[in-house]
């Protein structure tokens, strides 16, 4: 029986993928919150999912930026920019409002200001706050 020392070990063969080819990660399901969201009735309104979720939380009546930022996964500065509606697409979405029947999954639970339920899906379906 022969022992193989670490010095004698053969080098591992790496993937034969070209260097310039992009790696596609581990595969599997993509995070739905990292994609774009399109308004179902206004096809020109296309915003990031997290921005649309932030607007839905604001429409529920929550105005504290830190709570909204934690819930949707944005920074406080990004939530402030969403609230100031600097971007034209965000402005159109704020005017058109989130349609009834649309919901957004949050990263953290928030308390509904109307029924006091802790929800992870906004707008609140318990009291239909929209």
Secondary structure blueprint with pairings:
Layout: E1 36-38, E2 46-48, H1 49-60, H2 65-72, H3 76-83, H4 88-96, E3 104-111, E4 118-122
Antiparallel strand pairs: 1-2, 3-4
Helix pairs in contact: 1-2, 2-3
Number of alpha- plus pi-helical segments: 4
Q: Radius of gyration from the CA trace?
A: 22 Å
Largest sheet composition:
2 strands, antiparallel
Q: Beta fraction of the residues?
A: 5-15%
Element order, helices and strands? EEHHHHEE
Physical arrangement of strands within the biggest beta sheet: 1-2
Helix and strand content put the structural class at alpha+beta
Number of strands: 4
Overall mean pLDDT score?
81
Describe the structure.
There is one protein chain. This protein has 130 residues and is an alpha+beta fold. The protein has a domain of 89 residues. It has 4 helices and 4 strands. It has a two-stranded antiparallel ribbon. A two-stranded antiparallel ribbon has the order 3-4. α1 crosses α2. It is globular and about 35 Å long. The N terminus is likely disordered.
């Amino acid at each position: 029986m022969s022992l193989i020392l670490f010095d004698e070990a053969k080098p591992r063969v790496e993937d034969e993928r070209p260097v310039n080819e992009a790696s596609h990660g581990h595969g599997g399901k993509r995070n739905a919150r990292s994609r774009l969201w399109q308004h179902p009735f206004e096809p020109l309104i296309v915003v990031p999912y997290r921005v649309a979720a932030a607007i839905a939380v604001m429409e529920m009546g929550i105005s504290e930026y830190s709570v909204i930022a934690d819930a949707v996964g944005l920074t406080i500065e990004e939530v402030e920019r969403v609230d100031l509606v600097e971007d034209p697409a965000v402005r159109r979405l704020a005017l058109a409002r989130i349609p009834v029947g649309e919901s957004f999954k949050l990263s953290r639970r928030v308390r509904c200001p109307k029924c006091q339920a802790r929800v992870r899906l906004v707008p609140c379906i318990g009291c239909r706050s929209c």
